[in-house]
Amino acid sequence: MAEIVLTNTGRDAFLEANPEFRGPGAVRAVDAVLGLLALHGADRASGVPEPTPDLARRLLVEDLPSFVWADPAELTVYPAVLRALARRFDGADRTGVEEAVDQSTADFERAMTDPGNLTWPRWYARLLRTEGVDADDPGAVRAWLARLSRVPVPDGARRADLAGRTAVADVLLAEVLTRAYVRDAEASPAAGPLLADHDVARGIGAVAHALLGRWTAAGLPEGLAGPYAYLAPGPEDLPHLALADALLGEHLDYYGDVAVPLPPPALCFTDSEGPERPEEPEGEPGEAGNAGGTRAVAEGAADPSAPAVPGADARTERDADLLATAVDALTGTDPAPDAGPYGGEAAHLVYTLYQRGCSAESVARRAAEFEDWTVDPALEDAPVRVPLPGSPAYTTPTAGELARLLGTPGVGDADRARLDGPARALATVVDRLAATGLVFRRGDAFGLGPRGCAAVRHMLAIRGVVVPGPGETDGWDAAPLVAAAAVWPPAAARRVLRDWLRAHGDGDVAWSALLGAIGSVNRGTSDAAATRGLLDVLDLSAAPAGVLRGLLAHPVVGARAEETLRRSGEPVAPGEVPAEARALRVLDALPGKKGPLESRRTAFDTAAAAWPGGAAALVAAMNAADPHETARVLTPLGVSVS
Length: 642
Prior knowledge:
Strand content: under 5%
Distance between the termini: 76 Å
Oligomer: single chain
Structural class: mainly alpha
Number of helices: 29
């Protein structure tokens, strides 16, 4: 079939008239360019397809990078073929095509060498040429495929990347072929049909394979679709892609943009199985030491369980498939009998565990949230300690422990009894996930183990979510780090900012850059308050006094710098801090979400009584400093902000 399909493109006549296109690479370029132009409906009345500017651009930046492999030294041939075709015609058409080729050549060369555009046929065509295999000998190509014992993946790519790109390319080529056949059937061209009935009768897929074999390596597409299909897995062969889609949906629900980074995992992990007892954490009481309490690798050591993304290893892909299968058993069309009311939350649980920086969560607290109990916003994402191994049976925490976990004083035994059923139901879902070895539960604490964390990171990266690895954010500039950390759970933001300061020397330069970024990133927008919230996660007492003194006049950071200096016994002269900064400090200290409206209004009235000029002057200063947060906090209290 390879010699039958697309014989009416004028290829032989063109090659005879243009002897400069000699050699296998040049002939392949001529065949691909003329064939694709003809398939797209280019006029063949002159004996060869006549390019238009739009078709020339499409071939160079879309079709050729999808269907053709060319060695780097051969890339210049493809634009040259289009220019040679354009020279056969006169007037504006020729000029337009030449201009389109000139404008698109650089994009063509980038697209042809972009790893993100690799398909399985294009990748294997490149690889076999590198190993000296004759790409025009189908027997040699098949013998080379037979020698492969595993699926080789190019640096900077994953099997899922190639599978997805190949599936898209297959659909695009099938559509082009189908449209060409229908077009010729409706109005037979004088130059003859491109596809005969007996060709199409064998299937559009077979026709596509024949063409791709001419444009990549002889017999390669047929081999990858036949006896060597295991070397070219498609999306259906990678179960974790379905979970990756669900995780992407969760991320978009949270942040609305794949470009919003997630916090890096809490630590680099060793390859140990299961969580160990965490070290005593730094920071606030109740903050977990790490995700699952595994051992930390010595600084600078490699992290085999969370490989750099892109380029996850085969085990991580297998782990991702394993986790995806477990999630599907809980959420699919035929969920497990013990999935219970929370089985459908499995993908959400997996995402939020990673979104927390892979720190451990409480079964009871999460069950309380699912049941719409009130949870202190400051504790919603707070890590929990992982206990020593004990009984595998789940026991709901005591009433006192629940009160601490939820930040709700007054929780009693009756409340505990009411939460017991939901907590046990959720623990059953967690235990189903834990059966993979990628999730753990100890007592009320559960989380992602090291391999689970790596698997989730891999799946998020497949779908384009920015997922920096452990320590990777240490190399970021202060402004993008602050922009990312502003939307992270406070414990994760605290850890990453602390690590960044240490990596940058923890001195004047680092602190000035970080505090300056907090005071400027998102200023004037609705996200300004969340960005200022990073001042609450930082230990400002560790900042150099000189840096804080230099920030006293800052309209955002000034009042916080003053507070810290005064607590350490440093004098601050009256008038050094602007009223705008003081108003922001009062605004940020008001309980914006927690507590009944009456107590929140009382807090405002108390602050207004101490402000020069009273409530009206305070509201005016707040409005000048941050109108978005002023309206959000004060409007529910009945305070006029206009």
